[in-house]
C-alpha cells in the first residue's frame, strides 16, 4: 500500500515535470524522491511517469491517477479538522423528532437557530407523536425530541420551549362564532366534538378531558393529528379543541374562538433528550438553548 508521502511526491513531480524542482519544493533530495515514485508505481501496479535524461511526462495511467491522488491527499488533510469539528459539536448529524403541531410553532425558528449557530451540522427530521419520540430517544434513533409532557425525569432531561392556549375550531358561520366573546363550557354540551385520540394524542386528550365537560356521546370522530381535526371542522363535521398555533394552518372554512374554560397557556412543548447523551452536536445545541432561555 502506498503512503501519503509517496502521493505528495508524485503530485509534486507531476506538476513540476522535473524531479529536481519537485525535490526542492518538498525540501528533500532527488534520490529519495525517485525511490518514493518507484515504490508508488509498484504499489499501484502501473507506470505513472515516463522519464529520461531530458524530460518527465505523465503516462495515461499517471494522468488518471493524478486526480485521485490530489483527492486522497485533500481528504487526508481535511480529516483531522473534520474530526475536531465533530468532537466539538460544530459538525455532525442531529436527528430531531417533532410533533405535527410543533411544526406550526417552534420547529421553523429552531431550525433557523441551528443553521445560524451550527451551520455545519446536518439535520434529519422525523415527524412522530410524543410516544414514538420517547421510544426513539430511548433506543438512540433520535437525539432530540420536540414533544409534550410528562416525561420520565430519570431517563430524560427537558427544556420548556413554547406555551400556548387552547382555542375552539368551529365551521365558519357557526352560531358560537356569532357570540363575539369567549365560549363558556355549558355552551359546548350539545356540540358534536372531533376529539383527540386517547392513544396517539394522549397529551391533548388528557388536557381537554381535564378542562372541559366533554360528553362521550358527543364525540363524532377521534383522530390523532391537528391538521385532520381542523380539516374535519372545515367539512362541518363538528368542533374541536386545538392549540392556538393551529390558526396558522390557513384552512378555509374554519374560525377559531377563545375558550372561557381554558386558563392561561396550558399547552406546553418541550425539547427532550436522553440524559445519556453522547452526540457532541447535541451537547453544543443544548448549550445554545440553555443560553437563550436564561
UniProtKB/TrEMBL annotation:
Highest taxon of the lineage: Bacteria
Residue ranges annotated for the HTH lysR-type domain, each copy included: 2-59
Keyword Transcription in annotation: yes
Keyword annotations from UniProtKB, A to Z: DNA-binding, Transcription, Transcription regulation
One Gene Ontology molecular-function label: DNA binding
InterPro entries registered for this protein in UniProt: LysR_HTH_N, LysR_subst-bd, WH-like_DNA-bd_sf, WH_DNA-bd_sf
Recorded family membership: Belongs to the LysR transcriptional regulatory family.
Record-linked PANTHER family: HCA OPERON TRANSCRIPTIONAL ACTIVATOR HCAR, TRANSCRIPTIONAL DUAL REGULATOR HCAR-RELATED
Name used for this protein in its record: DNA-binding transcriptional LysR family regulator
Species whose genome carries this gene: Arthrobacter ginsengisoli
Amino acid at each position: 500500500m502506498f503512503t501519503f508521502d509517496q502521493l505528495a511526491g508524485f503530485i509534486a513531480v507531476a506538476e513540476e515535470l522535473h524531479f529536481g524542482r519537485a525535490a526542492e519544493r518538498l525540501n528533500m533530495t532527488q534520490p529519495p524522491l525517485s525511490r518514493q515514485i518507484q515504490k508508488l508505481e509498484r504499489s499501484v501496479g502501473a507506470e505513472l511517469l515516463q522519464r529520461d535524461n531530458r524530460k518527465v511526462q505523465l503516462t495515461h495511467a499517471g494522468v488518471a491517477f493524478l486526480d485521485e491522488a490530489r483527492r486522497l491527499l485533500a481528504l487526508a488533510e481535511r480529516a483531522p479538522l473534520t474530526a475536531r469539528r465533530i468532537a466539538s459539536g460544530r459538525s455532525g448529524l442531529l436527528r430531531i423528532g417533532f410533533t405535527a403541531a410543533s411544526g406550526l410553532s417552534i420547529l421553523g425558528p429552531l431550525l433557523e437557530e441551528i443553521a445560524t449557530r451550527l451551520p455545519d451540522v446536518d439535520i434529519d427530521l422525523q415527524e412522530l407523536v410524543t410516544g414514538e419520540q420517547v421510544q426513539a430517544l430511548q433506543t438512540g434513533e433520535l437525539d432530540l425530541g420536540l414533544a409534550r409532557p410528562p416525561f420520565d425525569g430519570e431517563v430524560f432531561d427537558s427544556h420548556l420551549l413554547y406555551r400556548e392556549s387552547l382555542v375552539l375550531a368551529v365551521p365558519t358561520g357557526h352560531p358560537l362564532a356569532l357570540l363575539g366573546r369567549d365560549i363558556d363550557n355549558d355552551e359546548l354540551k350539545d356540540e358534536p366534538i372531533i376529539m383527540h385520540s386517547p392513544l396517539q394524542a394522549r397529551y391533548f386528550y388528557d388536557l381537554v378531558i381535564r378542562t372541559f365537560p366533554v360528553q362521550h356521546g358527543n364525540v363524532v370522530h377521534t383522530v390523532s393529528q391537528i391538521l385532520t381535526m381542523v380539516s374535519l371542522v372545515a367539512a362541518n363535521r363538528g368542533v374541536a379543541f386545538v392549540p392556538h398555533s393551529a390558526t396558522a394552518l390557513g384552512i378555509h372554512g374554519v374560525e377559531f374562538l377563545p375558550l372561557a374554560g381554558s386558563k392561561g397557556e396550558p399547552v406546553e412543548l418541550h425539547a427532550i433528550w436522553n440524559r445519556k447523551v453522547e452526540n457532541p452536536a447535541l451537547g453544543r445545541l443544548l448549550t445554545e438553548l440553555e443560553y437563550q432561555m436564561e
